[in-house]
Amino acid sequence: MDSLEDFMSRGQFVYVSAGEYDVIDGDKHYIPSLVFDGEKGHSPMRGQPGMLPYYWGNTMTECQERCDEANEKMGVDRSTALKIVGQSMRE
After folding, report:
1. In this structure, are residues 53 and 46 in contact, taking their beta carbons and an 8 Å threshold?
2. What is the mean pLDDT of residues 39-52?
3. Cα 54 to Cα 79, 80, 88, distances in angstroms
């Protein structure tokens, strides 16, 4: 697992709901992913070994709304977030 220093050195990132979820007691619990600017792919926030993942909603839409809110708190608007996510699919 990367240290916090290694993580922060990777540059700008955004949160996105990429369809990752766990089913608990028959309900879906969606897990946000991190997408780093200039890097291919995404990293689901499944937590460290022995910890539960982050759950940001019971629908993909609810999870994405929370991702958008978190991105906005970091000063990243939806348009910029979509560009970063789109580029991660082409790298």
Report:
1. yes
2. 83
3. 24, 23, 22
**pLDDT in the model for residue 5:** 66
How many C-beta atoms surround the C-beta of residue 14 within 10 A?
Answer: 25
Q: Which is it for strands 43-44 and 27-36: parallel, antiparallel or unpaired?
A: antiparallel
Confidence of residue 50 (pLDDT cuts 50, 70, 90): confident
Buried b (16+ CB within 10 A) or exposed e, 17-44: bbebbeeeeeeebbbbbbbbbebeebbb
Which strand (E) or helix (H) includes residue 33?
Answer: strand 27-36
Give the bridge partners for 17, in sequence order: 32
> Cα angle vertex 85, ends 83, 89, to 5°?
110
**Residue 37 amino acid letter:** D
Whether the pTM exceeds 0.85: the reply is: no
